[in-house]
Design a protein that fits this description.
Length: 474
Amino acid sequence: MLLKEFEFGYADASKEYIYAKDLFDLSFHDPNDYIDKLINGNKYMVVGRKGVGKTAILSKIKFITDKQEDNYSEVLSLSNLEYNTFKKTKIDKDVQGSNKYKRSWEFLLLLSIVKQFYKSNSVENELFLELVGFLESIGININDAKIKSDVTFLSKLKLGTNIHIFKAELEKDFSEDVSDYSFNIGFLIEKIKEVLETIHLPDYKLFLLIDGLDDVLRYKVDQHEIIKGLIRAIDELNIFLYELDVYIKIILSVREDILNELNDPDMNKIKRDGSINVDWRNKQGDLMDLVRKRLIYSGLPEAESHKYFENLFSLRMGKKYTWDYIFDRTLFKPRDILQFFITCQDIYPENDRITKGELKDCIKRYSNDYLIEEMKDELSGFIEDEYIQILPEIFKQIGNKDFKINDFSEFISEQIDISQSKVNNLITLLYSAGYIGQLIRSKDRTSVQFKYRNPGSRLDFGNNLIYIMELKPA
C-alpha cells in the first residue's frame, strides 16, 4: 500500500472522536489497561506529558459510555473557563493555599453532576426535583452544561448581586438566613450532597470528565492555588461519591509538568493514590502497535502489518536503528509519532518505501512544521511568550551542533533583554520537556542524555547541550 492510502487521524483526540469515530474506536491502543483502572478502579487522575494521549483516554471513556444503557459521561472542558471571573469566587482573603478555591470547585462539580442527572431524565426523586427548582429560582440555568454560566453565578453571589433573590428563596424553602459567601456556598454544597445521598440507582454510572486544564497556564494570578483547589475538591468529592447508591466518578486530565510544580502537604498522597501516569518511554513496541492499528484500519492485512514496518525504512540510519532514530525525534509520544507519519505522507504520498535521504527530508519537515510549534505550545505559560517566540531563530543560529549555555545566552541576548536566571530557567524547561539534551563525557566515551529517555536525570549547566530538532539553518 502507498502512504497516501493510510489514515493516521487527527492531532487532537477529541476531534478524532467527533469526526472519525470508527478510526478512533478501532485504533485506540491501551496496553496498560488505563481505561479499566479509571472506569472500574479507584484511579481518577490521568497524568502525563503533553501529547501522550490523556485526552484520548477521556474520549474513549466517553465513547464507551455513549454506547451503554444507563451509562453516561459529560466532558467538562475548562478551556473556555474565564479565570478572571473565577478568581472572584475565592473564599475570604485570610484563607490560604488550595482552600481559597476548593469550595467554589466543589460547588461547580456537584452542580455539573446535578445537571447531568437532569439531562438524562433518570432521577424521579422528589427531593431532587425540589433541588432543581430551587437552583433555577436563584438564577442557575439547569439546562446549560457549560461551566461558564455557573462561574458567573458564583461571582455574582460573591459580589452580592441579586443577593435578595437568594435570601428570599433560602428563607422560603429552607428556613435559613444568608450571611456571607462562605456560608452561602457551603450551604449549596451541603444541600446538593444531601439530595445525592437520597438517590438509589444501582445500575446507573456517571463519569464527569475534566479536560482543558492547560488553559490555566495563561492566567498568572493564583494559578497554583486554583489548580490545587480543583485537585483537592475532586479527591474529596470522589470519596464522598464512592459511598452513594449510584456510581458517580470525577476524572481529571492533568499535565505532568503542571502537577510537578504544585507544593501542597497532601499532593504527593493524592498523586500516589489517585493517578495513573501515561508514559510511553522505552515502549517502542507499544508505539509501533499504535501505528500498526491505524495501518490495519486503513486496509492493510494484519498479517502484513509487521513486515510493512520492516520494509518501509532501511534498517539503520548511521549508527542507530532507524526506528530508534525516529523515536528519538518524536519524544516517545503517540501524537508526535502519528504526526511524523502524516508528514511522510504529505511529502511522499506515492511511496511505499522511504529511503534514507527521504527520511531525513521528512524529519526536517516534521521538525520545522510541527515539532517546533509543539515545543512553543508546551512552554507557554511557564515562561514569557517573548522568550518562546524567538527560540526557533536561536536554534537555527546555533545550527545542528552541540553548544554551551553561554553560547545560548549570547545569541538570545542579542535579540532580547533577558537575565541569566531567565536563561537558566528556559534551558531547564527545554531539558525537562525533552527538546534539548546534554552530552555526558567520560574518559572513554561521550553519551547523550535526554530527560524523555531518563526521567530521573538532572541537568548540569556545565555540560554541552544539544537540541532534538533538525531545523533549516538561519
